[in-house]
């Protein structure tokens, strides 16, 4: 290792110290454009390509970033400052550079039907307090929610009204009325959303359209019939009424819990079919198809070939010649049994009666 002189070591230490304590004044040919509100500094000076090629790239970029950051900090010190909890804070002005948004600006929420009515009539919403006085427990309680004041669901005794049926359950009636109110509020909420998005809300059964199609009318009739207590069991059919298709059929899905062996077997069979090189052939289906094709060909040949002309009837013999035993219409000795439509008749011939 070559010996280093003292002068070289001291020079190197001075360079490192000067690198750490650089001057705050930076010279640029073109002044930077600043946006203190967004803490931006725009450098329009072209980079020195010669120094970029000679020096290390990382050191060159680090030095350039350091100079621009120093100029931005110098610009921040020109702003008015104040002391907050032993810390000097600069007051940033309004930003001048418009930054793009990640998502579009949210649209204002469309007003509901009640809000439009209140605005038309000049009705202003009054804010109610959260706490109200409970006369039963003699204390302040919340107006809504759990442990609210004057909670009628906790009553163990309900007075039956004079006009009501004395045998009617008032507790179940109250629960049913509450469910109906909740369902009505949910329906109104969905209607407000649909009206804000300009979507038509369909009715139950037959949709309110200008001109109903045959399918829609059939669906409306089906819904009207099945809306009775007997679910349409005793409802008669209209003349020339057809049964609507795809009514009352529900899709069947595999259970999400339980035994998955059937699903596993189906998936494995599908993978085996996809992985096999030879195509899978259904023998029964192929045989049936071949038989139908043969029947169709034979039927076509029969229709194409001309039919034989002849007399209709059961004839056991050929022609009108005299037979030794049977004569015309005699037995098998008069001719062959294979010809004619009645050739397969095996009845015994009658005995010929002679003259006495």
Automatic annotation (TrEMBL):
The keyword Nuclease does not apply. Residues 301-312, 347-356 have a biased composition (Basic residues). It comes from the Eukaryota. InterPro entries: Ribosom_reg. Pfam families: RRS1 (PF04939). Residues 275-356 are annotated as: Disordered. One of its GO terms (biological process) is endonucleolytic cleavage in ITS1 to separate SSU-rRNA from 5.8S rRNA and LSU-rRNA from tricistronic rRNA transcript (SSU-rRNA, 5.8S rRNA, LSU-rRNA). Belongs to the RRS1 family. This is Ribosome biogenesis regulatory protein.
């Amino acid at each position: 290792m070559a010996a280093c002189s003292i002068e070289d070591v001291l020079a190197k230490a001075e360079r490192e110290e000067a690198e750490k304590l650089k001057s705050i004044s930076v010279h640029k040919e073109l002044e930077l454009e600043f946006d203190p509100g967004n803490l931006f500094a725009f450098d329009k000076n072209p980079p020195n390509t010669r120094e970029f090629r000679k020096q290390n790239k990382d050191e060159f970029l680090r030095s350039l970033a350091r100079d621009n950051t120093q100029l931005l900090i110098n610009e921040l010190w020109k702003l008015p400052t104040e002391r907050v909890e032993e810390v000097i804070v600069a007051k940033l002005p309004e930003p001048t550079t418009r930054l793009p948004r990640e998502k579009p600006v949210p649209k204002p929420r469309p007003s509901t039907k009640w809000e439009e009515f209140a605005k038309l009539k000049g009705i202003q919403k009054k804010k109610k307090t959260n706490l109200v006085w409970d006369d039963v427990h003699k204390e302040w309680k919340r107006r809504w929610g759990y442990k609210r004041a004057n909670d009628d669901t906790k009553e163990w005794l309900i007075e039956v009204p004079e006009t009501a049926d004395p045998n009617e359950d008032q507790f179940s009636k109250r629960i049913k009325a509450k469910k109906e109110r909740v369902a009505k509020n949910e329906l109104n909420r969905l209607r407000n959303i649909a009206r804000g998005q300009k979507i038509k809300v369909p009715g139950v059964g037959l949709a309110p359209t200008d001109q109903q199609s045959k399918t829609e009318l059939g669906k409306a009739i089906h819904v009207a019939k099945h809306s009775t207590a007997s679910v349409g069991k005793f409802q008669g059919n209209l003349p020339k009424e057809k049964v609507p298709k795809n009514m009352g059929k529900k899709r069947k899905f595999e259970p999400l819990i339980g035994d998955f062996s059937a699903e596993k077997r189906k998936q494995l069979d599908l993978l085996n079919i996809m992985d096999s090189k030879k195509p899978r052939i259904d023998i029964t289906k192929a045989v049936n198809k071949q038989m139908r094709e043969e029947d169709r060909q034979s039927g076509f040949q029969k229709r194409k070939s001309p039919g034989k002309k002849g007399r209709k009837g059961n004839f056991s013999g050929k022609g009108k010649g005299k037979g030794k035993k049977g004569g015309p219409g005699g037995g098998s000795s008069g001719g062959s049994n294979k010809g004619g439509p009645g050739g397969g008749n095996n009845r015994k011939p009658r005995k010929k009666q002679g003259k006495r």
